[in-house]
Design brief:
The protein is an all-alpha fold. The chain has 20 helices and no strands.
Length: 368
């Protein structure tokens, strides 16, 4: 395989942040010409940034901060501006996978733990799935053919997944140094919806089933968690149930790690993390419990395949912070309604039913 990527691959490395920048401009609303005049730059600069030909990540830090603050002053949607960081992270991963030589550059997935927002931005570029943070926004009327998502071209998507799988396989042979890269590459590989890729992913996660036999916290705990959730995503729920029983319940370190991971994934823990060690190290005072509760409640609605992990995590969070329903009554009412629905569902596991019943009891007790 040649290390030199075609020009179209290099052009794709700023596509996600550029698309978010376009949405931010449209939210003001301004045309490209209007924005160029307001920013005192030429039209080609605005067009290049929005298309990804001039990636935002290539701007000087000060210039990028000025751009974001100027857009905010012009009336741009703050949520969109806040997503630019995740979009640039996504571009970094896409670009490093499509362009960089594995012989000369360490993969970014090996050096930092990506968040849910970054993962959603990558999925947007790979399969067109709109990030939940952008759902519910009215569609803008546009003239002419305009792409509805920052979707990579089919050859680029194919190359991305091929190289990502290569990275996952190489990382699996690298011992402890490859744990983070393997875990995250395996997760992102599941976005490939082709039958061949699904078979590869299923085989890759099944070869890691040995991780699921450990009890409580181990250095491989995060990899085991990702393996169990990947199998659940493929339709096999039992490994996730076994993981919760063996590697989470009745182990204080593992319970803390689970909540820390959720807090980081959802953005309640904002400090960037270079590896998975933070899951054991961070204390509950380092993230906002209400923000985590809100994200878990949202996930309980949107991710039925992981209901058992969400149920246990909600039970653990409310056990540690029983005051949470009083801090956000509207959120507590939403959770109470959803919990009541799930308790009528015969498909949830006995343990999940027991934990959700305890959650429901806490919620109703605070309500009365």
């Amino acid at each position: 395989m040649t290390n030199k990527a075609p020009a179209r691959h290099r052009a794709a490395t700023g596509i996600v942040a550029g698309f978010v920048l376009r949405l931010a401009r449209e939210s003001i609303p301004r045309t490209q010409t209007d924005l160029a005049e307001a920013l005192r730059v030429d039209l080609a600069t605005v067009q290049g940034r929005e298309s990804g030909r001039r990636p935002l990540a290539h701007m000087k830090a000060g210039a990028f901060l000025d751009l974001r603050r100027r857009l905010l002053a012009l009336g741009s949607d703050p949520t969109l501006l806040g997503l630019l960081d995740a979009a640039m992270d996504a571009d970094r991963i896409l670009g490093a996978t499509l362009v960089a030589s594995a012989d000369t550059q360490r993969h970014p997935l090996a050096d930092w733990v990506h968040t849910r927002d970054t993962a959603h931005m990558i999925a947007w570029a790979l399969n067109g799935t709109l990030p939940p943070a952008l759902s519910g926004r009215p569609a803008k009327a546009r003239r002419g053919p305009v792409a509805p998502a920052p979707l990579l071209r089919a050859p680029d998507r194919s190359l991305f997944f091929s190289r990502l799988r290569d990275s996952a396989e190489s990382a699996a042979l690298a011992g402890g140094d490859g744990l983070l890269l393997h875990r995250q590459a395996l997760y992102l590989s599941s976005y490939d919806r082709t039958s061949e890729a699904t078979s590869w992913t299923a085989n890759a996660v099944h070869t890691r089933r040995d991780l699921l036999g450990a009890r409580g916290w181990t250095p491989h705990w995060a990899a085991a968690r990702s393996t169990a959730t990947a199998l659940a995503r493929l339709g096999d729920r039992q490994p996730l149930l076994d993981f919760i029983d063996r590697a989470v319940i009745d182990d204080d370190t593992a319970e803390t790690a689970n909540l820390n991971y959720w807090a980081y994934w959802f953005g309640a823990l904002r400090q960037p993390q270079a590896n998975d060690a933070f899951m054991r190290r961070c204390g509950p005072s380092e993230w906002e419990p209400v923000a985590l509760l809100r994200s878990l409640v949202d996930g309980l609605h949107r991710a039925p395949g992981y209901v058992d992990l969400y149920a246990h995590s909600l039970w653990a969070l409310l056990s540690a912070h029983p005051w949470l329903p009083l801090a956000s009554p509207d959120l507590a009412n939403r959770l109470s309604e959803r919990t009541g629905q799930l308790l009528d569902d015969r498909l949830i596991s006995p343990r999940s039913r027991q934990e959700l019943a305890a959650v429901y009891y806490v919620l109703r007790g605070n309500h009365t």
